[in-house]
Amino acid sequence: MNPNAKPIRYYWITLLVGWTLLATAAAVYARIRSIPATLAVPLALAFLVEYPFYLLPGFTAARERFLARGRGHAAWLLAWSGVFPWLIYALGTHHYNFPALIVMLSIAVMMSFWYVMFPAHPVTDLLYLAIFAVIILVKVFARIYPAPMPKVDMSVLGHATLIRLLAFSFVAFRGGVDAEYRFMPNRREWLAGLKWFAFLLPVTGGAYWALGLVKLRPHPLNIGLAIGTFLGILWVVCLSEEFIFRGLLQPWITQWTSSAALGVAISAVLFGSVHLGFHGAFPNWRWSIVAAILGVFLALARRQTGGIQAGMVAHALTVTVWKTFLQ
Predict the structure, then answer these.
(1) CA-CA distance, 174 to 176, in Å (whole number)?
(2) What is the phi-psi region of residue 118: left when phi exceeds 0, alpha when psi lies from -120 to 50, beta otherwise?
């Protein structure tokens, strides 16, 4: 299904199906983690409120409806939508504080209005991505969304909000993006993703082993958790990272340098560099090297297919294998 070629009803169908699955997953997760209902309800509600806005950048008809009253009006709605999930979380878990509200509102307004205020230009584009990267790398959302109880990480909700603010800004306000922000790969893209996964697995696996990173899990994840991991990684981590590194940076660098090889190489190095802080150890050169090697293959997949979805599949399969079998 290509949502960019479908009527708005496909957005509503995806929304209703997703709400059902998210509510079910939240109930199961709360039972597994022994989260009390007084805490589980507001946490689940925060994710359910975020979900329709998270879908918005990936559905053209829904984006057009959102933009119907003008860019300024849409930017304000987008900014306030970034604060709603935090308010539900903060009030429901008694973590509300005014400084955190100001930080969350400032991020939402800045990310929403960037391309309303500034024109598309290499300087403004790179500065916008740099701000996005800083927010992620300094772990702002770990402070804004403190864990309401041990092993319940809510910062992912902030990351989801930030991702869709960036994606909507590029595809709806800036425009001219040489990548289709789309959740579901088509048949050709699934097959291409499987092919590139087969190509990259022995190389990245060899690098992973040579750098001393291999540590097997005593018990691999069961098939249900592995599938859930794959889908979560595909639609959150991989969609956002492939959109930024292979959908934006790779073609920009190729254009600026007039070299496809430099577009592949530099985007892969940048992809590796953002993993320097992986697992809390900075600089984590070993992880950065493996990520850069992975980035080369994903960039080649982008060059072959002309889109980011095949890379999403290969990327998600790689991460799923790692999480399933390795610590």
Answers:
(1) 7
(2) beta
Burial class (CB in 10 A: 0-12, 13-18, 19+), 219: exposed
Please name the residue that has the structure tokens 């990327």: 315
The average confidence (pLDDT) of the chain is: 94
Tokens 């903060």: give the residue.
90
Residue 95 burial (10 A CB sphere; 0-12, 13-18, 19+): middle
CA distance 318 to 194: 10
- Which pLDDT band, with edges at 50, 70 and 90, does 230 fall under? very high
Of 264, 277, 278, 271, the closest CA to residue 322 belongs to: 278
CB of 128 within 8 A of CB of 114?
yes
Q: Is residue 155 a contact partner of residue 142, using CB atoms and an 8 Å limit?
A: yes
Query: Distance (Å, rounded) from C-alpha 240 to C-alpha 242?
Result: 6
Determine the distance from the C-alpha atom of residue 164 to the mean position of all C-alpha atoms in its chain, rounded to a whole number: 8
pTM of the model: 0.94
State the DSSP code for 307.
S
